[in-house]
Amino acid sequence: MKKKVIIDCDPGIDDFLALLLALNSEELEVLGITIVGGNVDLNTCGENALKALELTNSLHIPIYLGNDKPLYKKLEKAENVHGADGLGNTNLPKVKNGVLNYGAEDFIIETLHNNEKVSIIALAPLTNIAKAIMKDKSAFENLNEFVSMGGTFKECGNCTPVSEFNYYVDPHAADYVLKNLGKKVHIIGLDVTNKTVLTPNMVEFIRMIDGKLSKVVSEITKFYGEFYWRFDKIIGSVINDPLAVGYFIDKSICKGFSTYTEICKEGIAEGMCIVDKNNLWQKEHNSIILTEVDAEKFLKKFINLLLKDKEEEVEKYIGLLF
């Protein structure tokens, strides 16, 4: 059976790639996409999600706009990473027949109440999720799994020395979700995502195979790759959010440990994950921190799903990359 899932996101280049991955997967049934302001403003994120739906013939899947700013902070965007349009300044055409609904929190609550075994993959600041829990915590008793791309354990941060972007943008929401969700949060943080790099060779492979999504993937990752070279001297793009989708589909891709985690909400360590790995606080575990990743297995799955319309060619030549 397909896994039923809501994807909460702020597209963003890597969110966009994650949506393409999820929508191309035969293992997932995406019930809806909820949008929060993050990488770029709320409406731009919503328009980008529509573009992902159009590219995958999935415009029947509803999109719901949610919060345009964090719980208690001003929104800090990442246009330097994703471009003013969120997709590497590619200015892909606007979807003419796309619909953006309002009410992300209500959609999450109603979907959890009315369906069995629904999970959430959160690829963005957790504002929508926190507000949905505040509005109706009982709905989350029906939640199957919760996977969050955010945070970092031992790796340095990517927007402050100690903080990852999603949890830094809304640390109050991240902390609230961890303390109130009622399920362990699977945290796909920088400890694993930094090891999943889409290299120029992989992008060129995707372009040369020339599948339906090849051109757009090649175009939007140019800006992304240039950012990572300028700031981290990485040759390629760290594809954070797609790994969260890959892990949700196949848990063998990442390994980690169960623990209690909370988020520093202010001060010099704002957004930092405080991870009680040695159980010193003796608190009930609320998280699974992922620390190991089979990057090759994930990247092969990622490329295969993006190019599933060219399955035979990919199978024949993908060995050239690994």
UniProtKB/TrEMBL annotation:
SUPFAM superfamilies, A to Z: Nucleoside hydrolase (SSF53590)
Domain Inosine/uridine-preferring nucleoside hydrolase: 5-299
GO cellular component: cytosol
Key word Hydrolase present: yes
Gene3D superfamilies, A to Z: Ribonucleoside hydrolase-like
Domain of life assignment: Bacteria
GO biological process: purine nucleoside catabolic process
GO molecular function, one term: purine nucleosidase activity
Spans traversing the lipid bilayer: none
UniProt KW Hydrolase keyword: yes
Pfam families, alphabetized: IU_nuc_hydro
Keyword terms, alphabetized: Glycosidase, Hydrolase
Protein's name according to its UniProt entry: Nucleoside hydrolase
Organism expressing this protein natively: Clostridium senegalense
